[in-house]
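Exercise 7. Given the encoded structure of a 240-residue chain, write a plausible sequence.
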């Protein structure tokens, strides 16, 4: 366990030292939340725009660290042979991947703190089923961290860079982050329903609303995505 936590601390430091990593994980989500909250941009049907914006930005934060930051950094570690060498040390491959996931969770704790602080400035207070919302965040973390690692272990580093950022933009625009799917044209909404970003954002809006509910369907979708990604990763993930 000591080796696991030591590697997790190193992974966290590497993430926080990266300018691109800091931008995508700790600057963009709070900045977007602040921008849209100041302009009060949100769909009709929400008494306060922050009730829509905070769940969206929480989902965005999970995607930022799991898909983009973790995926791209791991891809370049694989490209330069770092991943192979670390996996061959006494740490082992399993604990190496576990350390990366722990670092992702640590970054998410910081992200949640920043986003909640910004939302509180605009009058948001903890409501709904907060423990279930945290569970949804864990499910989302599993999905997007698995996706980031799958891409990093399957494609070249340059391809991973483009693919991770492309999927990130797709999830924002069509996956229920920027706008609810029920306000989009039918064909686009149909595509969005299949995306894990919509399941995560919907689960968070459902659990954090003043009249909360249990997002069992959305959690099941995230679980299926995670299992499917892991099944593919077992066949395609390469350490070098």
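Solution.
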């Amino acid at each position: 366990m000591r080796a696991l936590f030591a590697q997790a601390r190193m992974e966290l430091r590497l993430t926080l030292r990266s300018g691109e990593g800091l931008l995508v994980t700790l600057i963009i989500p709070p900045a977007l939340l602040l921008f849209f909250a100041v302009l009060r941009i949100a769909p009709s049907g929400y008494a306060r725009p922050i009730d829509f914006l905070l769940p969206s930005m929480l989902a965005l934060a999970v995607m930022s660290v799991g898909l983009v930051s973790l995926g791209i950094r791991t891809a370049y570690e694989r490209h330069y042979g770092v991943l192979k060498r670390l996996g061959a040390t006494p740490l082992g491959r399993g604990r190496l991947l576990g350390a990366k996931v722990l670092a992702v969770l640590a970054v998410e704790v910081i992200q949640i703190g920043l986003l909640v602080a910004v939302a509180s400035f605009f009058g948001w207070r903890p409501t709904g089923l907060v423990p279930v919302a945290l569970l949804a965040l864990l499910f989302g973390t599993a999905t997007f961290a698995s996706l980031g690692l799958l891409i990093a272990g399957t494609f070249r580093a340059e391809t991973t860079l483009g693919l991770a950022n492309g999927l990130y933009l797709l999830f924002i625009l069509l996956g229920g982050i920027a706008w609810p799917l029920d306000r989009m044209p039918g064909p686009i909404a149909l595509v969005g329903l299949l995306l894990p970003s919509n399941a995560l954002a919907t689960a968070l809006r459902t659990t954090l609303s003043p009249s909360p509910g249990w997002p069992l369907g959305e959690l099941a979708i995230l679980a299926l995505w995670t299992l499917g990604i892991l099944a593919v990763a077992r066949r395609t993930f390469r350490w070098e």
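Remark. The CA atoms of residues 3 and 91 lie 6 Å apart. Students should compare their own answers with the one above.
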